[in-house]
Design brief:
Strands 1, 2, 3, 4, 5, 6, 7 and 8 form an eight-stranded mixed beta sheet that branches. It is globular and about 45 Å long. The longest helix has 17 residues. It folds into two domains: 34 residues, no CATH class; 166 residues, Vaccinia Virus protein VP39 (Rossmann fold, 3-Layer(aba) Sandwich). Strand 7 and strand 8 form a beta hairpin. The chain is 31% helix and 22% strand.
Length: 206
């Protein structure tokens, strides 16, 4: 198994170009078992909230959704959306295999190079602050880019962790671009007992 993993690793750039996406996913999930380390994550209340509450509601209420970041634990999210409704963006080319059919390889702050302003009516930014977008200045650039990418009144979902990041709202990162959503079911911050993960629901200001 070690030699097989080593061989697939060396061939991975070629495999990404020639193998169909379903075949790549099968090899990664069933042969290399890349998802095993995330098995416990799947049962966390915050993850179940994303998969069973947030994504189904978003799929039923928004036409053009952007999901930021892709991984072996997010690829199945696309099943909840219709064709052309769901776009993913991720800066690591090797993670494109986990993206939607409409996938962008770029950092999120460069979304404006790939889509026109107002292209989306919902953006989900989960687990990005503190995990790659770490400085206040970088986070501010991302918020400004998302403000441009969203239509007026569009929904921004921000998932972040209290143990790795200060409260973005208290830091003023959302001002003056976003305000808290006031409409149910997302008219309050979602927190989870025994977890540090938090979801903020924001609306793009005019």
């Amino acid at each position: 198994m070690t030699s097989l993993k080593s061989a697939l690793f060396r061939l991975s750039p070629i495999a990404r170009r020639v193998l169909p996406r379903p075949v790549q996913r099968f090899l990664l999930l069933r042969v290399l078992r890349t998802n095993d380390r995330y098995a416990s994550m799947a049962q966390r209340p915050s993850r179940l909230c994303m998969e069973r509450e947030i994504l189904p509601w978003v799929a039923g209420h928004y036409r053009h959704v952007l999901f930021v970041g892709t991984g072996s634990y997010t690829f199945h999210y696309e099943r909840q959306f219709a064709r052309g409704q769901y776009t993913t963006i991720e800066m690591q080319e090797r993670n494109a295999v986990w993206g939607a059919p409409d996938h962008i390889v770029a950092p999120i702050e460069e979304i404006g190079r790939h889509r026109p302003d107002g292209a989306f009516d919902c953006v989900i930014l989960n687990g990005v602050f503190g995990f790659g977008v770490n400085t206040r200045e970088h986070q501010r650039v991302v918020i400004e880019a998302l403000h441009r990418a969203l239509q007026p009144g569009g929904l921004l979902v921000v998932g972040w962790n209290t143990d790795v990041h200060d409260d973005p709202e208290s830091l003023g990162l959302y001002d003056p671009y976003f305000e808290r959503c006031r409409e149910p079911p997302f008219d309050r911050r979602r927190e989870f007992a025994g977890e540090t993960h938090v979801y903020d629901f924001l609306v793009r200001r005019q």
